[in-house]
């Protein structure tokens, strides 16, 4: 087993600053979070941005400014979310790629998302995948349910490998409507990932109470970790998360215990086929 790729997903689109005051929503808050998380051992940042009122946005100017600021201040691999919020239209989600991130997320199917629906039609998935191939953007395929791994297999079979040739998936576990955040579900995914191209890597994140079981299961099956306030706002029963750094530090501690210390951003780039800066 190699070292551990640690992705921080600091903001997401679901929590509000009013409910979660420690959530980074301004560009300054995002950049200082990114720098501190990199110093602790994160190598990728999965980015959702907010507008001046703290609401989720896919505003092109803000996306470009965010990519530029993170590139200037950190060595992290910059992964923009193409998932956005459940209310974002497909055209705005595709336009995220115009901000020229190094990586972008690409979700492998429609899923119930609490009371909402996170819509990802087949033709939209194909559009995202092929545009990323054309533009030299490395995808992270987001998997909310087991069958979405089969959709990924179909996508790669019909439309070819992603830019860089390496396949990396992220298991997002415990969304109400998707697969549960359990070790058993993670192992089922890990088995299915064996049917994907040789060398495929995966990271995993457990929403809410799935956070720790998923982290331990991922480490023990050779997987990588995604942590952050996009997915986890309670550190332990009755204890709100204080910062993204607290979650990254915990993940680094678990990775070290598993004798799989964090990969540097340069090592992560090599693993994922993301060009060196
Ligand atoms: N906010 C969710 C609706 C992604 O970033 O690609 C979608 C999401 C996945 O978070
Ligand atoms: Zn996201």
TrEMBL record:
Gene Ontology MF annotations: 3-keto-5-aminohexanoate cleavage activity; metal ion binding
Top-level taxon: Bacteria
Keywords assigned: Metal-binding, Transferase, Zinc
Cofactors that this protein relies on: Zn(2+)
Coiled coil location: none
Endpoints of the signal sequence: none
Matching Pfam families: BKACE
PANTHER family, A to Z: 3-KETO-5-AMINOHEXANOATE CLEAVAGE ENZYME, 3-KETO-5-AMINOHEXANOATE CLEAVAGE ENZYME-RELATED
UniProt name for this protein: Uncharacterized conserved protein, DUF849 family
Phylogenetic lineage: Bacteria, Bacillati, Actinomycetota, Actinomycetes, Micromonosporales
